[in-house]
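The data are passed on as follows:
___
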Amino acid sequence: MSAPDRRAMVERPGVDLSVRRQCALLNLARSGVYRPKSVIGAGDLALMRRIDELHLQLPFYGSRRMTFELNKEDRGVNRKRVQRLMRVMGIEALVPRPGTSKPAPGHKIYPYLLRGLAIAEPNHVWAADITYIPMARGFLYLVAIIDWASRAVLAWRLSNTIDNRFCVEALEEALERYGNPKIFNTDQGAQFTSAAFTDKLEKPGVAISMDGRGRFMDNIFIERLWRSIKYEEVHLKAYADGREARAGIGSWMTFYNFRRPHQAMNNQTPMAVWRDGMDKIEAAARAVDMPLRLDNANALPTYPQHNQHEAA
């Protein structure tokens, strides 16, 4: 993990640990934590937006090839600047490269559990990821949690810092609204390996799965979600502020869940597939319990019936 990512994890003032102790555990100099953050200029913001567009088209490009592509457009940038901006954006080439990025010290890494696994019903596997959202002035980070079988977005959050708090908030909302999955898959980022995040899954008995480093194919459905939302919403607009970004992304998420058909699912919408699958699970459970629990034959489904727009 890069130093900027580790600095973002330091709490000021330290509640459970002093800033000095946090810096020692994260192998950081305190001067870097207290130093005022540099302001990103308009030129860098425009370049970051273009890097994001190229990253969607060429996810296997690292900073060297990204610099080459940018200079083909006569942007006159050097590789060091591109590397710095890609770190700020939280992106890297999506190819297997062991050891290029590590979680915070002491964070547990879990094995990948989805290889060869048949996933055909909702709440079997959920997945989460973070992406960069450019605005007219500045940028935000977006985390989303999806159901693997239906592709439904169960919860999402925006943040101006890439820490674990907005990820934990999204996870809490998804668990409260839609129950518990059997498996939860993420990458090895510090936001997802933190105890604050994994404890929310381990307590109800959810199995945790993590991608191999740089293997975007291990979490392919949420990568496709990023591609769709950026081509259909984010890159068509220049949000003025976080409120406008939240409204635009919220409207698109509602459209995606309830109106956007998926060819891979017989042109059904993600939330329709999720609800249909849960109805079948509930019906099967009632059929099994009926001889012993006739009083529950007319019970309502136990999963929430919330509208996704309310979550936005």
In short: The beta strands are 125-134, 139-147, 153-159, 183-186, 207-210. The chain has three domains: 1-37, 38-93, 106-312.
